[in-house]
Amino acid sequence: VIGEVLTELGVPEEKFAATCVLVDKLEKVPLDAIQGELEELGLERSMIEKLTDVLTNTSIESISAVLPDDSKAVQELTKLFDLCNAYGIGDWIMFDASVVRGLAYYTGVVFEAFDRKGVLRAVAGGGRYDKLLETFGGEPTPAAGFGFGDAVIVELLKERNVLPSFEGSGYDSVVFAMSEDLYGVAIEVASKLRAAGQTVDLILEKKKPKWVFKHASRNEAKFCVIVAGNEYENGEVSVKDLSAGEQKAVKIDSLEDWATEVRSTNN
């Protein structure tokens, strides 16, 4: 849309990206604040004023009125909204011509996601960038993507009082390797337990066993599975029942059977 409007206003194509950056700034600063930058680009103030007038439109119909009849931008937007309606998410999508992503690599529709109340800043933002991979030496590949802000999401979850607490998540087992060279074995052990239906917390960090047991207890895990050198040489791991305080060796090849037996016993 902006590209077509800029063309209509007589802005050279090589200045599109820089102009978009300036327009993006207008959300935070008044037009007077970027007057100098406009002059450096050789743009008249009237061009930006006309562009900002267009960007206040909130419907595809109103945009259609200021763009050519065969506008590809309008066709793409119309198709996008038709698809959103077909997916049943039309009520969650609104057209806003003022959304101008500051990065110059976008080649199509851009979008921003907000919380329903519209109180916080954008939770996520992205768009279409068909030439991005090609720019960095890759094969020409149509693409779309987005980035999101974890800080905004945390604030949103706090405001809704739905921020999860990972304390007491209730893992079935915590798997821990005593040394870095056993990380691969620990991954294998965790995979076997997960395949048997267990929820597993896999720790691939240099931690002392005391910390691991405390972590397992804090998260209300039922078992702690320790991968250590001596046991591994025998094809075994140590499994500690955290509620009973008992520890035993279990063959790695029999872990899935053990997990199935434990589940049936607890049920």
| Helical amount | 40-55%
Global outline:
elongated
Order of H and E elements: HHHHHHEEHEHEHEHEHEEH
Structural class: alpha/beta
Instruction: Give the beta-strand count.
Output: 8
Report how far the terminal alpha carbons are from each other. Answer: 60 Å
What is the typical, i.e. mean, pLDDT? 85
Task: List the topology elements.
Elements: H1 2-8, H2 16-25, H3 35-41, H4 45-55, H5 60-64, H6 72-86, E1 110-113, E2 124-128, H7 132-135, E3 144-148, H8 150-159, E4 173-177, H9 183-195, E5 200-203, H10 209-218, E6 223-227, H11 229-233, E7 236-241, E8 246-251, H12 255-266
Parallel strand pairs: 4-5, 4-6
Antiparallel strand pairs: 1-2, 2-3, 6-7, 7-8
Protein model, in words:
The structure is a single chain. The protein has 267 residues and is an alpha/beta fold. 41% of the residues lie in helices and 15% in strands. The chain contains twelve helices and eight strands. It has helices at residues 2-8, 16-25, 35-41, 45-55, 60-64, 72-86, 132-135, 150-159, 183-195, 209-218, 229-233, 255-266, and strands at residues 110-113, 124-128, 144-148, 173-177, 200-203, 223-227, 236-241, 246-251. It has a five-stranded mixed sheet, with helices on both faces. A hairpin with a 4-residue loop joins strand 7 and strand 8 (246-251). The chain is elongated. The model has no long low-confidence stretch (mean pLDDT 85).
Write a compact overview of the structure shown.
The protein has helices at 2-8, 16-25, 35-41, 45-55, 60-64, 72-86, 132-135, 150-159, 183-195, 209-218, 229-233, 255-266; strands spanning 110-113, 124-128, 144-148, 173-177, 200-203, 223-227, 236-241, 246-251. With 267 residues, the chain is of the alpha/beta class.
